[in-house]
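I am writing to request your help with a piece of structural work I have in hand. Here, with my thanks, is the record as I have it:
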Amino acid sequence: MATLKRLTKNTLILYQQSGHFDEHLASFYSLAFGEPYVYKDTYLVYYDRFSKILYLSLFELNVCEDKLQCIETTAKLFDPEEIVITSPEKLQTDIGDFHCVNINFDRDYQIYLPKFNETLEGNAYKQLRYRVHNAIKRGYYLEIGRKMAPAHYHLVACHETAKKCDLWDSQLYLGIRDYLKHFASPLLFNVFSNAMLIGFDVVDFLNDTMTIPLGFYLNYPSLTDFILFKEIVYAKEKGYTWLDLGWACNSGVELFKKKWMAEPRFEIWAQEYVKNGVKDRIVLEGK
């Protein structure tokens, strides 16, 4: 078996179907982060020859392999200027010619669907029930589709204006249309009010998990509660075990996910490494 294997469209889908959370969305990330590979059938690897950034996901798809060996092998092969790594454990500050310049810790929150009562009956669901009913009273409705319209791009632009985006965030946003065009599994969960798109989520599917890697919303009351409720109902109807809501990101988003009974299923260390002697990269926010 080759140490590093280039992934085709079919093998991308195959590896994605054995994944556990959004770090394993090989089809999506291959459009944003560069050419996709798998290291020893276990770690997903992407190399962007334009930015010279190597992206490594050190969350196992199969048996555990030596993480440091994966980093050293792929760095030697691709000779990147920067390495972005997500891992279940904190890695050392210096690896070969690379020095860590940024470290973030987060948790991935998921809802265990068999335990969730989608009727929202009972005291435990009182506040959720109120928010969903409030959205229904306001006339929100859901449409599931696969086509990006001008209204979708407007919401993405609003999101980018309000948030300082790093390079890989922007690459993901730009990749949504091709993601929907080239792969059969992703969907758009679109919420409308008075025939106007007010929010949408990008949704895809792993092994026993439905995952929501991206969402864009206008400032409408109970909007995120409404769309999440609809996604829970959909995921349960389709027989999925977990609904992956993604990383906590910040305390406000984390609180929202906890209110919807999501639990931290994975711990994530995100670390940025720059090659010694390479100047700091100028990122989108201009710092």
Q: What stands out?
A: The chain has two domains: 4-106+268-275, 108-266. The first helix runs from residue 9 to 16.
